[in-house]
Amino acid sequence: MPVTENTSETAPDSEVRALLRVLDGQRRHVLGILDGLDAEALRRPVLPSGWHCLGMVQHLALDVERFWFRAVVAGDKEIIHGLTSGDEAWNVAPEARADDVLDGYRQEAEVSDAIITATPADAVLAWWPHDLFGEPHLHTLRDVLLHVITETACHAGHLDAARELIDGRRWLVLT
Asked: In this predicted structure, what is the pLDDT of residue 138?
């Protein structure tokens, strides 16, 4: 989706801008808590479930950013037809470079931002995955933004725990 210059008619309203700032803060948290980890540490599972930080970032790129904004909000047919039905996004190929996975997340966020800024908060969703979620429980861009903010924040917390287990680093500690 090409990024177009915002005019007063297409500029996102203040609510969308505020929600996008919150989402961007959560995205920065996801990437910031991983800063300084080498490729080996990014692939090290530290919780009993076996996921690793790189898999979490790929999940956020594909199952969160791409899914909710490109498929659900924008209705991108190519993305919808390419969706997988399982946990494939969590499985990072052994030959995949860590930097490429992190950059993939950044790129998906940029595409999401273009969709978000071109869409009114009350815009009806272009597509809904009935096979996954049944009847719609999210109805507008606003609903999706709130859902994605919540999901990204939750996963940022997971990454906080993983990072502390890897090397003791903590993102933000208020004492």
From this structure: 97
Whole-angstrom distance, CA of residue 161 vs CA of residue 166: 9
| Cβ 40 vs Cβ 81: under 8 Å | no
Per-residue pLDDT tens digits for 34-76? 999 999 999 999 999 999 999 999 999 999 999 999 999 999 9
* DSSP letter (8 states) at residue 136: -
Q: Which of 37, 54, 36 is nearest to 45 (CA)?
A: 54
CA–CA gap between residue 42 and residue 76 (Å, rounded): 31
Q: Please report the beta strands in the chain, taking only residues with DSSP state E, as ranges in sequence order.
A: none
Decide if pLDDT at 9 tops 70.
no
What count of other Cβ atoms lies within 10 Å of the Cβ of residue 92? 21
